[in-house]
Amino acid sequence: MMTFRDAFLSLATLALCATANAQGNAVTIGIQPGQSTTGTASDGSPGGIGITIGGFGNTPVVVPPGTDSMGIATAATAALAAQGFTVVQNGTDVIVTAGPGGAPLQSGGGIGSTDTGINGVKAKVTPPAGPGGPGGGPGGGGPGPNAGKQNGGQVQKANPQKFANSSGSIQVDVEVLKFVNGTWTLLWIQVVVPVFAGDTGQAVNDRVRQQLQGQGLIVSDLTLPPVVAPMTSGSFGMDRTQDGGRVQGVGFAAGGGARDVLDGSEAGAGQVPQQGATEYDRSIDENGDATTDWFRFAGDATVGGGGVLDAHVLPGQFGLWAITPGPGGLGLGAPLIPAPFLHPGFDLPIDPLAALLLPGISDPLGGMQLPLPIPPDPALGGAELLMTALTIDPFGASLFDGVRRTNGVTLRIGD
């Protein structure tokens, strides 16, 4: 008798053709009003401002000292337009809808600054509208075969080795899209974290994490490609809330002594990290409709580290963790792979021909966990895994009755 794995691998060979959806994300980046450049970083070196959009690399924004927020936005719009992006300015916001040559934006973007006069920045990603509302339904993501990362936000961590010379604060604003009572609802979560004279950057980071988690956000540790150098302290990543809200963007501002513990000020949305775990795509049911199922990796994404795969699905389901080794082109905007043998309209955000399948059972509350240790092999540094969780109703009329899958997760392993 053919096993589920045999069926999964052999029938998948019939479903490897897909075309990318040409409709991409819109990315909004901005400088909070009321600021002006000093031209100087906190260590006395020349200050800098940079933008990264849609995986097309970094764009420096050259502005003289004394340039206000509107002038920075104008300069950023011109710099991006000069590189071929489709971009418009709306006050101090810069809205990018396509890359050079009209290429769709699949993975968001961000803005950063080492200029001590610029400490309020924001970044937001808006997926293309799809069936069921913005982002393709309650689970978020985009319509059709678009597997690019379309949600999530990141903000800069403080340098653990630095000290605050005076009191101040760090403010983080998180834009969350939730499907509430059949209606798309946009919510803002704001935390204002006090910084006291003598605080270490590590103490500030602990306080920021505690307050974000206290507002229901799931917080991960990420290392992102720097928008402006030096950015060595890592970032807080937020893809979703505990109750299923999808993070669309973030704003970040620091004042007073908080600036002393920051290497710079950065915010990003929909970016894929160089190290750590982050989500892409959306969760779907057997009909291809979005669901509230999800999973994440919680732990240390470094060689010799490890963590736990943590899924929230329907109770009492037979589960399969599907893990595919990188490189992860699929996680960065390549087409989803249709899987009609599972159900018409069903697709996968991983390569089924290369997937390792590990079983699981969801508990009465819908939880399902799998330990994922990372061996202490230096060769694993920089490796990538793409992951999703499949669930099947054990009491269904047929083998694939009630099949569902979670979002995809990209895990990049650090040295």
Count of the domains:
2
Count every helix, treating DSSP H or I runs of 4 or more residues as helices: 3
Strand-and-helix sequence, N→C?
Answer: HEEEHEEEEEEEHEEEEEEEEEEEEEEE
Strand order in space, largest sheet = 4-5-1-7-13-9-10
Percent helix, as a range, is: under 10%
- Low-confidence spans: pLDDT under 50, at least 5 residues? 1-22, 131-147, 328-334
Could you characterize the architecture of this molecule?
The chain has helices at about 5-10, 70-80, 200-215; strands spanning about 25-30, 50-55, 60, 85-90, 95-100, 110-115, 120-125, 155, 170-180, 185-195, 215-220, 235-240, 245-255, 265-270, 275-280, 295-300, 305-310, 320-325, 335-340, 345-350, 355-360, 365-375, 385-390, 405, 410. The protein has about 425 residues and is mainly β. The protein folds into two domains: about 25-275, no CATH class; about 280-410, Immunoglobulin-like (Sandwich). The chain has a seven-stranded antiparallel beta sheet with strand order 4-5-1-7-13-9-10, with helices on one face. Strands 3-2-6-14-8-12-11 form a seven-stranded antiparallel beta sheet. The chain is globular. It starts with a helix and ends with a strand.
Write the layout of secondary structure elements.
Layout (H helix, E strand, L loop, with lengths): L3 H8 L14 E6 L17 E5 L4 E3 L8 H14 L3 E5 L2 E6 L10 E5 L6 E7 L26 E4 L11 E13 L2 E13 L5 H14 L2 E6 L12 E7 L4 E11 L8 E5 L6 E5 L13 E7 L5 E7 L5 E8 L11 E2 L8 E2 L7 E6 L5 E7 L10 E9 L11 E2 L2 E5 L3
Keywords:
disordered N terminus; mainly beta; 2 domains; 3 helices; 25 strands; seven-stranded antiparallel β-sheet; 415 residues
